[in-house]
Design brief:
Elements (H helix, E strand, L loop, with lengths): L2 H30 L1 E12 L7 E5 L8 E9 H10 L4 E3 L11 E6 H6 L2 H4 L4 E6 L2 E19 L11 E3 L2 E7 H4 L6 E6 L2 H5 L6 E8 L13 E3 L2 E7 L4 E13 L9 E4 L6 E10 H4 L10 E4 L3 H10 L3 E4 L1 E3 L6 E3 L4 E8 L6
Parallel strand pairs: 1-4, 7-10, 14-17
Antiparallel strand pairs: 1-3, 2-7, 3-6, 5-7, 7-9, 8-13, 9-12, 11-13, 14-16, 15-21, 16-20, 17-19, 18-21
């Protein structure tokens, strides 16, 4: 490489180095130059669970959950804080210059937000806030016990009363609401029809994870919590089908009125009752058997052809007994249902 070329290359390198340093200085100066920026920020007042406090916004004020802040600081730091403000700012009673004492308080929003550690570490000044203040009401939480009542769907066939575990829950209630509540609070668990559909009949089952509703006077109230929020319920469905064995069921003979005077029909003693009759059906109907409401009978109803054939042959007529005078949902089973009838034609009366 010639001497002149070397000098050109050296000069170019020097100029590039100077340009790089100049750019770096400019970037540093730009980052540290002062800037004023307005930014919209969502602000939430929320008490820590361990504080046993609840905070609400007082009605009729300009602040409704967000503020416009004027920020002053170095460019890079302002950008950093704006990035952090993309998340809601949480102001907590007992911290961030927010008092913890119950009562109504007027909060200087610029000062409260500036006191947050995440804001302080950026060294950006919050020059102003619009609106400037928020009015909050702080209330102490009180604890009350409520008995858990289980409500089943209308018409559910239950065997005994359902039982909740635990049988009572702890309510955390703002003091302003608690003072007007009665001593015997009742929380409610509602059983949905679909939750019972798959349960077996006749034995106790447990349904878990059922939501507890607060007492009626607290429905819709804010800042009311329930511990535990869900319970288990032990429940038994009454068996929808049931069976019973009836010692005896009487047997009747049914004829059309026009046939009554034409035939002499007798039933041997052993065929006048069916014994050990098993009956299956809905439990509510089974429970009524033997009462005035349901008194089943068995009957045979010979046709005219049956009667004439038996009378002509002189042999007993054998017919299958049918059960009647009972709801159709009941099913009857008997070891022996064949009934023998002795049939004779009555002598014609003289004219």
């Amino acid at each position: 490489m010639s001497a002149s070329a070397a000098r050109v290359l050296s000069t170019a390198r020097s100029l590039l180095g100077i340009a790089a340093v100049t750019m770096l200085i400019w970037l540093l100066a730009e980052a540290e130059s002062l800037r004023v920026e307005r930014v919209r920020v969502e602000v939430i007042f929320r008490a820590a669970p361990e504080s046993e406090r609840v905070v609400r916004l007082a009605p009729g004020q300009e602040f409704v959950g967000s503020v416009t802040l004027t920020l002053e600081g170095a460019n890079a730091r302002v950008d950093d804080l704006i990035g952090r403000f993309r998340r809601p700012v949480r102001l907590q009673p007992g911290r961030d210059t927010i008092p913890l004492d119950p009562g109504r308080h007027v909060i200087d929003l610029a000062s409260a937000i500036a006191s947050i550690a995440e804001v302080r570490e950026t060294h950006v000044r919050i020059a102003s806030s619009q609106p400037a203040t928020a009015i909050i009401d702080i209330d102490a939480l009180v604890s009350r016990t409520a008995t858990v009542r289980v409500e089943a769907p209308p018409g559910a066939a239950l065997e005994g009363a359902p039982e909740a575990t635990p049988a009572s829950v702890r309510l955390s209630i703002p003091g302003a609401l608690a003072k007007d509540l009665p001593a015997d609070l009742v929380a409610t668990v509602r059983l949905a029809p679909e939750s019972l559909a798959s349960l077996p009949e006749g034995r106790r089952s447990t349904i878990t994870g059922l939501v507890v509703e607060p007492p009626a006077l607290l429905l819709g109230a804010e800042q009311v919590t329930i511990d535990p929020p869900r319970v288990s319920v032990a429940i038994a469905l009454r068996t929808r089908t049931k069976e019973i064995t009836l010692p005896t069921v009487p047997v009747h003979v049914r004829l059309a009125p026009t046939e009554l005077g034409l035939w002499e029909i007798t039933v041997p003693p052993e065929g006048r009752l069916l014994t050990d009759v098993l009956v299956r059906g809905p439990s509510d109907l089974i429970d009524q058997l033997g009462t005035d409401k349901i008194k089943p009978i068995a009957y045979v109803a010979p046709s005219l052809d049956d009667l004439e054939r038996a009378a002509a042959s002189g042999q007993p007529l054998e017919l299958e007994a049918v059960f009647g005078d009972a709801p159709g949902l009941l099913r009857f089973e008997a070891k022996q249902r064949t009934i023998r009838l002795n049939v004779k034609r009555r002598a014609a009366l003289p004219p």
